[in-house]
Amino acid sequence: MPIVLNRVDDRLIHGQVVLGWAGPLRVTHIVVVDRDVRESDWEQDLYRMALPEGLQVSFVDEAEAVAAIPGWQADPVRTLLVTGSLATMARLGASHPGVMSEVNLGGIHAAPGRRQVLPWLYLSAEEEAMITGLGRAGAHVTAQDVPATRAIEAGDLPS
What we know:
About 35% of the residues lie in helices and about 25% in strands. It is built from six helices and nine strands. It is globular.
């Protein structure tokens, strides 16, 4: 089965990802695309502790993800790909527009230059432009914190 969810969530692996998304989607592999985590054994160990037995995880940087996405897409293993930033997801989307056709905006939290769009979603003008770019490239972008809530189309986000 191909990648079943492409998610932007600045917390990467946490309860909403593991229980809220991976469980209902029957995901057995999570790919974390983050250079800093890729280079930090102790951070990887922390994230692994949040995973139930049987849920595999890969930590890759962006270049490794670009090279591996076609293989993950062709693999029968159900995979959830998560990035900590919209910029990373936008670059992955540009490199593989057919594969990155569905993008979920999860927790993107407050930071300088961002405004609150939803209770759990803060975006800068630059990030809003990235969402528009993903859409123009053919990606269906929605904001949804957990599967039990209604997905909000990118075009319907409060401005």
